[in-house]
Amino acid sequence: MKIDTTLYTGRPQDVQGRSPQELACYDLLDHLSIPYTRVDHEHADTIAHCQEVETYLKAHICKNLFLCNRQKTDFYLLVMAGEKPFHTKDLSKQIGTSRLSFAPPEIMEELLDVTPGSATILALMNDKEHRVKLVLDSSVLTLDHLGCHPCANTSSLAIALGDVREKLLPALGVTPLLVELPQEDAG
Fold first, then answer.
1. What whole-number distance in Å separates Cα of residue 178 and Cα of residue 137?
2. Choosing a second label site near 185 at 20 to 30 A (CA), which of 20, 45, 86, 137?
């Protein structure tokens, strides 16, 4: 994967080719006076691609999974450490939802205005009706910086976790559900 190894501070100066969703992330962060660093790269659709980016970003990029119940009436954005395995049964028990699965891409696009591979905590700014519940794994709370995409998987940002918790989430009106997912499969 091709990575621009330059670590940038703040928004890109040249916005040509950047999506409106990505630019809206920079606008939001700037409006909230949240500093961030950025690395640009080719599409990073998987956590394996993101691990390469982490070296230059100097932050762990979290796994962001868009999930729903069987009836597709309850939606969740799970943010967890990238290296942790995910098993629906571990999360289902903790949030009291049975038959948890990955939500269809069209619902993710409708509710968060992002496509698969670009899910991010920043996309919650597009969920004006608060239909998506944010679920944070406790391992994320141990990080100094949250690594995430700015609603486009061709850039990655490092944002201080304190700013996420104290500025971003309150501004979005989001209170996360905290869970503790096992490091290894307990089964």
1. 6
2. 45
Tokens of residue 68, six digits: 């729903």
Separation of alpha carbons 50 and 41, rounded Å: 10
- Which residues touch 9 (CB under 8 Å, ≥6 apart)? 35, 36, 37, 38
Give every CB contact of residue 105 below 8 A, 6+ residues apart in sequence: 115, 116
> Any idea what DSSP says for residue 126?
G
Q: Beta 132-137 vs 75-80: how paired, if at all? A: parallel
- The residue count for the chain: 187
pLDDT tens digit sequence for 36-75 = 999 999 888 777 777 888 888 988 889 999 999 999 999 9
The two tokens of residue 53 are 């980016």
